[in-house]
Amino acid sequence: MQFNIENLGPIHQANIEINGLTVITGQNGIGKSYLGKGLFSVVDIARENFLYIRSFLYKQVGETIEEIIEELKPFPSLRYIEAYLDFLPIDDFLFNRNNVREELEERKQQVLKEMPSEKNKLVKESFDMLNMLTYAKVLNSEEFNNERFKKSFSSITNSIFKGAINNKNNKRAATKITLKDSKTNTSIKIEVENNQLTHLEANSHFFKKVTSVESPLILTLHSFIRDSLAFNRGFNQNADPYQGLPYHIFDLVKKISQKKFTEETQLSNEIKSIISGSLQFDSGQDDFIYTDSNHQKHNILNVASGIKSFGLLQLLLASNNLEKGSLLIIDEPEVHLHPFWQLKYAEILIRLVEEGVLVVVTSHSPYFIEALKTYSDKRIKDKTKFYLGEMKEKGTIFKDATNNLEPIFELLAEPMQLLMFDN
């Protein structure tokens, strides 16, 4: 899967492959976080669009099938057609279009052959309607309300980027973001000029879920954020749905605030072993608590940031937000971790990739990057990519450094060399 960016914030160009583990590094202020937020925005918009169109198809297809079945009832010899329609998966209209068209045409011809001509006009029209619905695109401005998605895109990106989407070094250049999977022939294309969406095109969604993690401190602040959002919504029904909160943070608060959690997995148990305890939501305290290996409970305010970093992954696993086919975007997780725990965190990310989660992570830490390199070489080498960002005249260019990480480690070692030179 290829993720391409032109002129997003400080980024001039980035051609990023996402196939398992994708590691982004470089100096501060070059656009690593912009890259992650851009990816999150595009994927989430496409997913929302897919869910909207799927709900549209469920309604339209369901109603049309009911009409056909009603017309077929007087004809016992056509019950097999009725059974076929009863069990026709709606998602096939999005993902198995050609086969559905062929089957619908075959069933239509069978009906026309066995049903008297004076009775088959409505059935023919209904079958033709079903056939037309197989051409429904996940986004098509001519067939569906494109304004809805422009509004949604603007709402989400304005909350994340605060009106600073276009390239800071070349404000006249259009921002172009493309996500394409050549294996499934699916793509998303977005263009923005003057921080306004000018072109949006997509023919599918890519991931079951997408989650962006910027800081484990979200666990400390989540109750305050949740209660503030509820208060503001009650006070002003016409208020901004995100209440000025960046959408990716709003989304994460929703996910970790779920009250229903799944059974423990091997990976979540590994995380609990690392932090010698576990995080869970305590309905009595209406907050997250950490239960240590001695069964002592601690309010999240009194828990170390490193434990929160691992605990956040544990909660996302338990809430089914890191299932196979999901995308996880993490910004500099090493900030809150001791070097030894950086190695453990890197190993957990490798395990997530092995279980089918796609991971995009930014980092400045030589410990963390070396750990990702070492573990991925042993277990997911063909699914790992490293990229180094360099600031140029027109903005940052991210280059593939997978086959040679020396420039990355030289960059990260430079401050220590300067310190040694000063001494």
* Biggest sheet record: 11 strands, mixed
Distance linking N and C termini: 47 Å
Number of helices: 13
Biggest sheet: strands side by side, in what order? 6-5-4-1-2-14-13-3-12-11-7
Mean pLDDT, nearest integer?
Answer: 82
Low-confidence stretches: 138-145, 231-238
SSE succession = EEEHHHHHHEEEEHHHEEEHEHEHEEH
**Whole-number radius of gyration?**
25 Å
Name the structural class.
alpha/beta
Oligomer: single chain
Strand content: 15-25%
Which descriptor suits the 3D outline?
globular
Number of strands: 14
Helix content: 40-55%
Q: What is the secondary structure topology, with strand pairs?
A:
Elements: E1 2-8, E2 11-17, E3 21-25, H1 32-72, H2 79-86, H3 92-95, H4 97-114, H5 121-133, H6 146-161, E4 175-181, E5 186-193, E6 196-202, E7 210-213, H7 218-235, H8 247-256, H9 266-275, E8 277-282, E9 287-292, E10 297-299, H10 305-318, E11 327-331, H11 339-354, E12 358-363, H12 366-379, E13 384-392, E14 395-400, H13 406-422
Parallel strand pairs: 2-14, 3-12, 3-13, 7-11, 11-12
Antiparallel strand pairs: 1-2, 1-4, 4-5, 5-6, 8-9, 9-10, 13-14
Helix pairs in contact: 1-2, 1-5, 1-6, 4-5, 7-8, 9-10, 9-11, 11-12
